[in-house]
Amino acid sequence: MNTIINERKEREENEIRQQEIAEQKRLEEMTERKRKEEEEIAERRRQEEIELRKLEYEERMRKEEQKISERRRQDEIQITEQKRQEVIELRKLEYEERKRKEEYEERKRKDEMEFELQKIRLGAEGRSLNSNSVANKNVNSMQIKPKLDIHHLMQKFNSDENDISLYLIMFARLSKQAEILENTWVTHLLGLLPYDVAQLIAREPDEIANDYGEVKKILLKRYKLTPEKFRQKFFMHNKNLGSTWKNFAYEFRSFFNEWVNGVKADSFEKLSDLIITDQIKRKISQEIKDHFIDDWSKLNSPDDQSIIIVQLKNWTIMVL
């Protein structure tokens, strides 16, 4: 009986020990699993922290590279701007140097031209004085100095801005007002003309270069002013706003005289023929004018119209 009881008790104790061992094993397994989970969590956190630090490092490096790139770009911009400013400064210096040279050359050229003009003027004045008689010399000695300097009254002639015919009209009028002797007009006029034109006159013989009338013809021819041009100016000339009626009348008279003298209408009969012919020519159609365009300005007498009529008949027959 006791044996049975002991066996049962021993069996119960074994079962209890086994349960305790099983429970202990279960606790150990739970502890191990928890430890592993904690290790995994810690590892995961460590990896996350490593990844975060890596990202932070990469971001920091990226920003640093951006700063370096920006500094490099700013340096390049600064260097480029500095080079640009140096080029600008160099070009400015070159321009100023070139301008100084041009101004020097221009001053030198003007001085040489002024010197040559002065030589021409002195030569013309000397020739003019030598060509006068002793009586005229005595008169000139009393009136050699004009009342006014013509160079203070008129600007130098500029072909781009001035009309040579009006310029000469103004020169003659002011010379008379300044009481300049007519035999010295050429001397005073040369100082108002461009250098090349003054040289053109200086190359003429003394009897032409000292004669204002001849010099005037040279200038009108040089600027292509024919009697026909003066006729057109006479009929088409208008009064300038700043001009007086007296000056306007003077200009008209000058244009008329140049026209009449140019075609040698030196008598009342010739002047009458000239005016009548001009009126007849105004009545003729443009077609006929075009046909006789080469001879049109040369027809200055009514007698010339008969030639036109004969030629016109021949021309009409040829056309038909």
From TrEMBL:
Highest taxon in the source lineage: Eukaryota
Q: Which residues form a coiled coil?
A: 2-74
Q: Which UniProt keywords apply?
A: Coiled coil
Instruction: Enumerate the SUPFAM superfamilies for this protein.
Output: Retrovirus capsid dimerization domain-like (SSF47353)
Specify the protein name.
SCAN box domain-containing protein
